[in-house]
Amino acid sequence: MAESILKPGAERLDRRTVLRWRNAVFAVFLASGLTFSSWAARLPRVRDELGASTAEMGLVVLALAVGSILGLVASGHIVHRFGSQRTIAVFFSVLGAGMVLAGVGVELTSYPVIVAGLVVAGAGMGITDVSMNLNGAVAERALRRNVMPLFHAFFSFGTMGGAGIGALAELLGVGVGVQLVVLAVLLVAAVLVALRWTQSEDVLDDPAADEPASTVRSRLAVWRQPATILIGLIVLGMALAEGSASDWVALALVDGHETSNAVGGAGLVVFVTAMTVGRIGGVWVLDRFGRVLVLRATALVATVGLALTIFSSWTPAAFVGIALWGLGASLGFPVGMSAAADDPRQAAARVSAVATIGYVAFLVGPPAIGFLGEQVGILRGLLVVLVLVAVVAVVAPAARERPATAAPQA
């Protein structure tokens, strides 16, 4: 690693230290995925416990989205004030506390308690996600390697593990509340330990990077830049593809394909497994073919997968579609984060803006699909996702590599 990218006095950032930083960010992404997916995989059970309709479940999902939007709106200012490390420590703990409260609400069959817990969890999740993406983007620059897809692969490892835990808990009859309490305690402790090996986003020697985000006005200015909007559209389409699957794949199989709750949970496992494979392989593919071609190809794969899931009447074919859907959606978000961080002068502000666009799609889109699904069926409601994924292929050139980042070091 070249010493020229380090601030004076930061010689402690030798290769071993930076690798520990990278591994700690892996742990944070993993824990975040575990927390969210362990809840999402139990949605069929939550629906059954509450006796809720699809529209009522949409309201439950909306509570998480509302909290997340509140967190996302505040995230850039909070990170600027306290730094990404401290922000992750505090707000991942808030996320865990919210999930515990939501789990208690399920055990009490209380809508108000569930909604309150999900609003709190959503706020913690939104702020944590922006913070960990920013910290990961700076770690990527310190490594001078294209590792953002691997950070998101660890999020997928977490969602895969959480989905598996949820499916197993369903089979064993473990209550939603018990599951969430145990996981929250373990994961908050793990994240607080991992953060000891991370570094501040200010550690790299790039004085100009801080200037555009030094005031509220300058942090908001990136929203007016065409590059931010176009990269945001890429992240929006792919984040919606990922978020809609996390919230609705299980119920789409149960209601649309008339399968059991356990089979519905297995569908989510298939999706997140395919997404994980795509992110692991994505580093090599991106290095070989570049962002634009890869984004266009993955958008096509996701479109085909969604079409199979929506229109196939044969459940095995729907599972193939879910796998293609996950594979195609795997790289849009991490590529968007890397593209947003290409310009070091505006990396922090632009990563925050693009992440906000993505997480709004990730969290607001699924409830909207739920309300639409109440009218036309959840499978037909997913047609909205198919259209927006197709848009990604059109705007993919916005993520083209800058010369300084086109060839990461091995």
Report on this model:
- There is one protein chain.
- The protein is an all-alpha fold.
- Helix content is 79%, strand content 0%.
- It has helices spanning 15-40, 43-50, 54-82, 84-107, 111-143, 148-172, 176-194, 207-210, 216-221, 226-256, 261-289, 291-311, 315-328, 332-340, 347-376, 378-381, 383-395.
- α11 (261-289) runs parallel beside α13.
- The longest helix has 33 residues, at 111-143.
DSSP E strands, number: 0
Q: Kindly state the percentage of residues in helix.
A: over 70%
Q: What is the SS-derived class?
A: mainly alpha
| Average pLDDT level | 84
Features:
410 residues, mainly alpha, globular, disordered N terminus, disordered C terminus
Topology diagram in text:
Elements: H1 15-40, H2 43-50, H3 54-82, H4 84-107, H5 111-143, H6 148-172, H7 176-194, H8 207-210, H9 216-221, H10 226-256, H11 261-289, H12 291-311, H13 315-328, H14 332-340, H15 347-376, H16 378-381, H17 383-395
Helix pairs in contact: 1-5, 1-6, 1-7, 3-4, 3-5, 3-15, 4-5, 4-7, 5-15, 6-11, 6-14, 10-11, 10-13, 10-14, 10-15, 10-17, 11-12, 11-13, 12-13, 12-17, 14-15
